[in-house]
Amino acid sequence: MSLRITDEKRIKKAHESFGNFAGICVWLLVLCLCSLSSTVCADTTTELTVSAYDNETILDSVTVDYKWMEENLPVYGDGVTHYYHQGPIFAGDPWDPEETTNFKDLGAVKGTSIRDLVELVGGMESDDEVMIKAIDGYHFEFPYEVIYTDEPRRGPLVVCWYVGEDADKGEPQGSGYVPDYYAGMRLMFLADTSTNAEGLHVFGNYDMNQTMPPAVHYFFDTNFPSTNGLNVKWVDEIRVYKGGYHT
Fold first, then answer.
1. Which of 81, 147, 95, 94 minimizes the C-alpha distance to 118?
2. What is the secondary structure of 129-180 as a DSSP string?
3. Which of 4, 37, 104, 244 is 20 to 30 A removed from 147 (C-alpha atoms)?
4. What is residue 25's predicted lDDT score, i.e. its pLDDT?
5. Rounded distance, CA 229 to CA 218, Å?
6. What local confidence, expressed as pLDDT, does residue 247 receive?
7. What pTM value is reported for the model?
């Protein structure tokens, strides 16, 4: 990361005025501010491209923004209800069947389902896979059954473009539509409350175990499942691969 010349001058002046320690502190503060600015502004997405592929051939493609999605496709979430994924459990059963701890509040979101988005390019068949990719290249692939089967404890897979209320604790999400919702557009499962004793909408680790094939389970480490790893930030592309995705 490069600093602007004005920032370098300020750092030099602080170094001369307050000594080595103070100069280093100012330098670290500038780096943090630059990093925060980049995270909040540069990566937030407001539109995405949906494409259908046959091997490397693009069969169909469309680009839509959050305004079009809200106006033309069903909206999931109400901007009031908070949704949660679950982080890794390091003590006891890592699958945590009773869904007891380490919930990650993702805010009170609204968004558009992956199912409705892939229908814009012809939908999926049973042997197809969909890739959801972030602007930084991070991506996941999901089979037909995850997108097209209804599992209330898992919920629909949704690209969220609005947060009506920030997370109560943990990672800040922002407020309002993207880009003010600066964790968006964000991928998440909008689970029901059936498996959580507190009545929270948690897509827990054991929910993943019971509703998704092992090949697409996410692990923080080889022994620690975590649905929190599936909530991809800054989604900008959805690809349907006919016959499955091949690296």
1. 147
2. EEEEEETTS-EEEEEHHHHHS--TTT--EEEEEEEEE--SSSS---SEETTT
3. 104
4. 41
5. 6
6. 61
7. 0.82
Q: Which of 109, 125, 136 is nearest to 201 (CA)?
A: 109
AA letter at 96: D
When pLDDT is averaged across residues 200-215 and rounded to a whole number, the result is: 97
Give SS3 for 36.
Answer: helix
Residue type, 67: K
Give dist(CA 125, CA 146) in Å, integer. Answer: 12
Q: Which pLDDT score, from 0 to 100, does residue 34 have? A: 37
pLDDT for 84 beyond 50? yes
Q: In this structure, are strands 83-86 and 201-203 parallel, antiparallel, or unpaired? A: parallel
Strands 47-54 and 103-105: unpaired
Dist CA 186 CA 207 (whole Å): 20
The gap between the terminal CA atoms of the chain, to the nearest Å, is 31
